[in-house]
Amino acid sequence: MSSSHSSSDTAAGPSVSVVVIAYNDAGLVGEAVSSALAQGPVVAEVIAVDDASSDGTAGVLDELAAAHPRLRVLHRTENSGGCGTPRNDGIAAATAPYVLFLDSDDVLPPGAAEALVRAAEEHRAPVTVGACVRRELPEGREVPWMPGLYTPGDVIERPADRPELVRDTLCVNKLYERAFLEKHGIRFPDGRFVYEDFVFTSRVLAAGPRIAVIGDLVYVWHVRRSAARVSISLDRKDVGNWRSRVEAHRTASRTLAAASPELGRACQVKFLDYDLRMYLRELGRDPEYRAAWWALTRAYLAGFDPADIAAAPARARWAAGVLAAAETPPGDVERLMRFAAEPARLLPPYARDAAGAPVWSAELPVPLDGLDALPVAELPVTVDAEPAGAGAVRLRVRDLYGRLAGAGPQTVQLSFPPRAGGDPVLLRPVELRAAADGDGWSAEVPFRPAALAAEGRRRGLRGMQAWDVRVGVRCADGSSLHTSLRPLGGLLRRRALPSSRYGVLLAQPYRTAAGALAVRLAPGAGGALTFVRNRLDRARTRRSR
């Protein structure tokens, strides 16, 4: 395709083929297809590829196609086992100048295609990227995908100028010029290739396209963790998922390194700082899984260039160092899991080597190189929380090899971000004092669940409320850090509290998968019933897996 279209042409004529892939998703695919058709006349066609579904997906698509001339349905006779082959089928069938991808359980927000095409035409960009959010269902909480990676309005002349772009491995938040894909022979891996996005995106970046960036929301990625059949990327019940991710990364890394040393190194750093830490913090307690995961990861990291590891952030280097130093999962593997969480927390004890330098532990003296250079905001500080009588918690801010002491901690401030999304509830800062035993600093902070529940209700939260708990530490030198809390003692005990507004308030502090403190509040009998029902639903989900 020649890039001769103007912005006025874009508004007047159809320009986009939207490729929707589906497999056994009869209940959701209609919403996805409808969101593509609703983009308006800029969408020339919607190509839905049914990957030999065994439910009613094919019928749903055929019925929609009968009512919407712009919808074409391709029926595969054999299931491909992955997402790559049906997407390739869609590319081959596409006739419009641009291609946009959509999964059957996600949606395109209104105006997405139009905004992408306008930018592509204006900047003669073979690739245009917009904002994406992960929408957690059924709660509806939205988490931006890769915030801060792109600057709206930017035009990136070549990917090697922005090596950090390798962190965005999604194919669905981007518009592609079809002629560009054809010229470079860019396709997805075929068959049951998990994380096919990694490879496709690496091939796109390796081809060196100009990339236009818009600030518009162009994709809503639905995350259904409690679904009976979770998505391939969320299906991490055995080590096979991690093996697939490693293989996809290996292929992507080689592709990028062959095109640009900068992109190749950035891909390796991304694996250490993102993929590795994500799976570490979800390592779980199954000893067989841990052992298999550990062996696979050590073998893969052994092939990394030391310069690539040295280029990674400190916390990624330290985690890789622990893996290299221990042939099997160490006794403090759960400490490593907490360190890999976000925000990172390095739990005590804190060991030093014979020369007095900080190391991971006495058993694994991995140097914590670069600790002295970390700004206070990035220190993996641990803050403990335990009961301090009725209506208060005692916080203990742990020092980290003297780094925090140098900044002079002065106050702590609790905040409660609602897990459903929204602004946090902030409490007043409380002065810190040196702990009586000399180990860090402590303060007693009011914690009144009834007041928090009332604020939640004022904000429109009904039934059971779920809140994360965060803490901010401000220091004398003007620096500050924000982290989560480690619950200790009897803090996780459920309490039924009298409430003048609700009659009774059920408060359940709990430990998240990352080991951080959070709290559920069930105001009144209705809220308590919701709390019990949710617990039963979670128990059933765990048993089904």
Automatic annotation (TrEMBL):
- Specify the Glycosyltransferase 2-like domain's residue ranges: 17-183
Q: Which domain of life is it from?
A: Bacteria
Record-linked Gene3D superfamilies: Spore Coat Polysaccharide Biosynthesis Protein SpsA, Chain A
Q: Which InterPro entries match?
A: Glyco_trans_2-like, Nucleotide-diphossugar_trans
Protein name (database record): Glycosyltransferase family 2 protein
Q: Please tell me the species this chain comes from.
A: Streptomyces katrae
Provide the taxonomic classification: Bacteria, Bacillati, Actinomycetota, Actinomycetes, Kitasatosporales
